[in-house]
Amino acid sequence: MTLKPLSGCLTRKLVIFTHKITLFLPKILINSPSKRLIFGLVFLSLISIIGLDYLAYKQGKQAYFFSSRAASLKTSPPSLFEEIFTSLEKLGLPKSSLQHHLDKQRVLHLLINLPDKNYSTLAPKLKHSLSQNSKRKIKIEAHQLGTTQYYLWTITGEKDTASLLFQLNRPKPSPLPQKLITSKQLSSKNKVAIIIDDLGNSLQAIDAICNLGFPVTVSILPYSLFAPETAQIAHQHGLEILLHLPLEPLPGNHPNNNSLLTPNGGMITAQMKEPEIIAFIDDALRQVPHVVGVNNHQGSLITANPKIMKIILLELQKRGLFFVDSRTTSQSVAYQMARSLGLPTTYRKIFLDNEVNSAQIKDQLVKLLQRGRREGWAVAIGHPWAETLSVLKENRHLFSAYDCQPVFVSELVH
Length: 414
Description:
Blueprint: H1 3-24, H2 27-31, H3 33-58, H4 67-72, H5 80-90, E1 99-102, E2 107-113, H6 116-130, E3 137-145, E4 148-156, E5 161-167, H7 183-187, E6 191-199, H8 203-210, E7 217-220, H9 227-236, E8 240-247, H10 274-287, E9 293-298, H11 306-318, E10 322-325, H12 334-341, E11 345-347, E12 350-351, H13 358-375, E13 377-382, H14 386-394, H15 397-401, E14 405-407
Parallel strand pairs: 2-5, 6-7, 6-13, 6-14, 7-8, 8-9, 9-10, 10-11, 12-13
Antiparallel strand pairs: 1-2, 3-4, 4-5
Helix pairs in contact: 10-11, 11-12, 13-14
């Protein structure tokens, strides 16, 4: 606050105060020259007293006239985000050194790389600093992936939420075990790709996927709670990342799948205009780093709409991304339209887990490998169910048994 507005406020108060005094003074007092002199001196004294009180207020000393105003001008307490950045800076981590992102739901995401010994020193101090507010909740989860240790802090305040992912060392670029990628597989012309959809709501799934031991493409929902963290871990462990773009389904389709949409139900709808569609894609891509392509989440209504699909595909083409048609409807025009536009594309042939049953998931995996061997390539989509990931891990030997090489889906776009 500047001096000018305060001075104006002071002047107005003095005028009002003087006016009130004159209402109680007899007319004779105002009309008498000697009395006017006395009144003037009293008035000047009041100005001096109030002026000195104002100076005391400005210097942070005890003030009387301005004390109530000073109380009302106290600054509000710092926000959760400000406290986090301030605390980290005091612990030797300035904001400029951190990867941070504020998503559409105003959740702050921070990725922090630290040596193990530094985290051991920092963690208790940071927790103590952020726990001063009794209404704040801090949840810490530990995740071990190979030689890399992660700690995920979820901090919930009265109004804001923050997610801090501490990575204690960096893994090697390629974690794929050599025992699985045999010379026979490398020379095979039959290629199969597996996409795991609907990631971003938990880090448990990405832990398991990183340990499968063969190339897997992960597709992450924008605005999911841990979208940036999931993408970062997947990227650092050599996995391929897609944006799982939410598109409007036909009425009544996917009745039990609403929880997998963005928290506010956000998706590209048939009512959207072109600028809205482009803005949605732009914002969704900002939520998920390291994306190389896109596949659709639901979308039985939109993928059958040539006008809207053309807008989407042209936007992806501008950004150098490919498109995988999840084929959630037999009426989809997405794959053929992408081909006609010259956009690299492919489509799903097999769903692994429409039925979440280990025996049926294994049967679907075998069908994928059979089609891969028969047709030269095949793409399957699964979900991060414990049953799906367990079947994939336990049946890695089937790739070589069916003479199929597991690859990222980017190797099958054309």
